[in-house]
Known about the structure:
This protein is α/β, with parallel strands linked by helices and 267 residues long. It has helices spanning 42-49, 72-78, 95-102, 108-121, 123-126, 138-150, 168-183, 195-201, 219-224, 226-233, and strands spanning 3-13, 16-27, 31-35, 57-62, 65-66, 80-83, 156-160, 187-191, 204-209, 212-218. The chain has 2 domains: 1-79 and 155-251, P-loop containing nucleotide triphosphate hydrolases (Rossmann fold), CATH 3.40.50; 93-153, no CATH class. The chain is built from 10 helices and 10 strands.
Amino acid sequence: MSALQLTGLTVERGGRAVVRDVSVEIPAGQVTALLGPNGAGKSTLVLAIGGVLRPRAGTVLLDGADLAGRRPERIRQAGVAIVPEGRRLLPDLTVEDNLRVASYALTRERAQSGRDQVLELFPQLGQRLTATARTLSGGEQQMVVLAQALISQPRYLLIDELSLGLAPVVVSRLIPVIRTVAESGAGVLLIEQFATVALGLAHQAHIMEGGQIRFSGLASELRDQPELLSSAYLLRGSNPEDPKDPEDPKTPGAGEGTVAPAPGRAP
């Protein structure tokens, strides 16, 4: 089975190692979950894989080629797309134009094929193509961000905080899309603050804390033994030298219709 292989990745921010010697395999055709508390280094890891940040050490191997340190557009052309935390859209452009921007480097045929595919995955967007991004609901904005990443039909998709700030009913509409993407053959790395969401989709799971991987195994292990997840999350703050990831989002409260966070997350 092919896979995107991260080996010994170390990433610095502000002169400190935020990600330290991380090795993770993202198999094709599966969802792999990456869990952990705020400041664990998850967002920095995604940005390094996507070429936004340059790793100090380590490799990102795809079909024997090392993508570590390449420019973001080269990594995307190789078949790896990232969805950074924060729903980063061009707010004054329409949904249609946001999709066009995401497909600018594709041939006309591939762009059209990708557009057809994402509108099939997100039929709601087909009714909102002329709306500007700033007028969309949070759920619709997340759909556009996912569509931008998927329009190039990547082999690997890395999603940072799928459910952040979204109501459960919205998250329930996104989950089948992620499952469909994986079933189509793409490898998905899902970085998610809500363990129940991630573990319900994932085959493999990893827990990251203090910039390091503290657990790797089957997602079913964490579903069946939630104390493993709680123990890993409670490592937070145990080492005052552990760096914090400035890109990790603040944890929203469990009120106002959002899903409750995983064990160890402060409300």
